[in-house]
Write a structure and sequence with these properties.
The structure holds two protein chains of two kinds. Chain A has helices spanning 10-16, 41-44, 59-64, 82-89, 128-144, and strands spanning 2-6, 24-27, 68-76, 79-80, 95-102, 105-110, 117-123, 150-155. Chain A is of the alpha/beta class. In chain A, the strands form two sheets. In chain A, strands 1, 2, 3, 4, 7 and 8 form a six-stranded mixed β-sheet that branches. Chain A is globular, with a radius of gyration of 16 Å. The two termini of chain A are 16 Å apart. In chain A, 45% of the residues are buried. Chain B is an alpha/beta fold. Chain B has eight helices and six strands. Chain B has helices at residues 16-24, 46-53, 71-86, 109-122, 138-141, 152-166, 182-199, 204-207, and strands spanning 2-7, 33-38, 57-63, 93-99, 125-132, 174-176. The longest helix of chain B has 18 residues, at 182-199. Chain B starts with a strand and ends in an 11-residue tail after the last helix. The chains are: A alpha/beta, B alpha/beta. At the A-B interface, α3, α4, β5, β6 and α5 of A face α3, α4 and α7 of B. The structure holds flavin mononucleotide. Flavin mononucleotide sits between chains B (9, 11, 15-17, 63-67, 99-102, 107, 135-136) and A (36, 38, 89, 92, 144).
Chain lengths: 165, 218
């Protein structure tokens, strides 16, 4: 399965993806998302599911079914825009609370067997330093979520049709 | 000097960022006027944004969330950038205390870069950052003597940060782990998760629950 997470307007998204197949789930901003409140309920109360019932509580389950994820986000200071970062923060039910060591530093243990490849399309006016930060950020995030391959692209404007294919 | 302290933890109750700010306050000169802000319940008002821009220095304390800034704080930072540009407020000194869950304070490196990039966009001066690993240890150690035992590194780092703020100067980010063995932190954390789950009526196997019959990792 494939997930597309984006912060484009409906119109911009439809111009980019005129049709989406049944195997793809699109996560977009419906205005209702709440920010993670750091309760860790997704690990110790309702393991695997976020406690905030706003329609974005199922990110853990969704990622467990993905072999491919695409993120299209404004680049803000070398990281995602607030909406996309919000969804990513709400995605920690995908992993377990336990610590494991990787390359000499800690990270969380995997919950699920699957892995997904990640492609990130950043758009907007981005400085060279922000680009470097953004590449390092995506790489580190891929370690956190045990991703497979990853690719990062930068676009000056909202990506146009064909760019993300 | 007017210092605005912004607690950027999204937790509603006690949080490690708040403990860090409380422990830090005695380090800076008593003559400073300190105003406290939280953003966990409500976003800041226009007046509060303007008050921040009217301060001599800002001190943010926040947790690392997925390698960078928690989303609600990121939203606040983008709003502050807009206000700063509108008000043509340049050169504000900004300092940071970051804490993260993993043992290594160095895991805050990317967040520090993001903060530097933000300061550059706003026209602010990146003052200094203290980045502490194993932040969830704070409630257990907050009443221990600062600068000793598990708080040895933190005491030294907070002293440097206070000097920087008192003199409105800039310095390098300091990355620290607690003076406590890493294997102990790992062991204690695992015990913590199991006990916390138990209080909710869950056992060890429940913590590893899989949705919709998906397969467990090896
Ligand atoms: C959604 C989420 C993401 C997190 N991401 C990281 C991370 O990438 N690295 C890390 O070391 N800790 C991470 N943590 C752990 C927090 O930084 C840690 O629990 C911190 O002590 C919380 O501080 P507070 O009490 O001030 O909110 C994360 C926690 C949450 C809830």
């Amino acid at each position: 399965m494939k997930m597309i997470l984006h912060d484009l307007s409906q119109q911009e998204f439809e111009a980019l993806y005129p049709s989406v197949d049944a195997n793809t789930t699109v996560i977009s901003d419906d205005g209702a998302i709440r920010h993670c409140v750091g309760c860790f309920g997704c690990w110790i109360k309702t393991p695997g599911v976020c406690m905030l019932k706003d329609g974005y509580q199922g990110m853990g389950e969704l990622l467990s079914k993905c072999d491919e994820a695409v993120i299209i986000s404004q680049c803000v200071y070398g990281t995602f825009g607030p909406f996309v970062k919000n969804v990513v923060d709400r995605s920690i039910p995908y992993i377990l609370p336990y610590f494991v060591m990787t390359n000499g530093t800690m990270r969380h243990k995997k919950r699920y067997k699957n892995t997904f490849d990640l492609t990130v399309h950043f758009y907007g006016d981005v400085t060279e330093k922000e680009k470097e930060t953004a590449k390092r950020f995506v790489e580190a995030m891929c370690v956190d979520f045990h991703c497979g391959k990853h690719n990062v692209y930068f676009h000056e404007d909202v990506p146009a049709e064909g760019v993300t294919k | 000097m007017k210092i605005a302290m912004i607690n950027g933890s999204p937790k509603l109750g006690q949080n490690n960022s708040g403990i860090m700010l409380k422990l830090f306050e005695p380090f800076i000169q008593a003559a400073h006027e300190i105003a406290q802000y939280t953003i966990s319940k409500e976003p800041l008002t226009q007046e509060q944004y303007l008050a921040l821009l009217g301060a001599d220095a800002l001190l943010f304390a926040f947790p690392l969330y997925v390698e960078a800034i928690p989303s609600h704080l990121l939203r606040m930072m983008t709003a502050l950038e807009k206000h700063a540009k509108r008000e043509k407020k340049q050169g504000l000194y900004v300092y940071f205390i970051i804490n993260n869950g993993f043992y290594e304070g160095t895991q805050n490196r990317i967040a520090v870069e993001v903060l530097e990039n933000w300061c550059a966009r706003c026209g602010f001066r990146f003052g200094m950052a203290v980045c502490q690993g194993a932040g969830e240890m704070m409630p257990a150690v907050e009443s221990m003597p600062m600068g000793h035992g598990p708080l040895k590194n933190l005491g030294k780092a907070m002293k440097s940060l206070a000097e920087a703020i008192d003199n409105k100067s800039c310095g390098e980010a300091i990355f620290i782990s607690p003076n406590w063995p890493r294997f102990m932190w790992k062991f204690q954390s695992h015990l913590f998760w199991r006990n916390a789950a138990k209080k909710n009526g869950l056992n060890k196997a429940d913590i590893g629950k899989l949705m919709d019959n998906q397969h467990a990792a090896d």
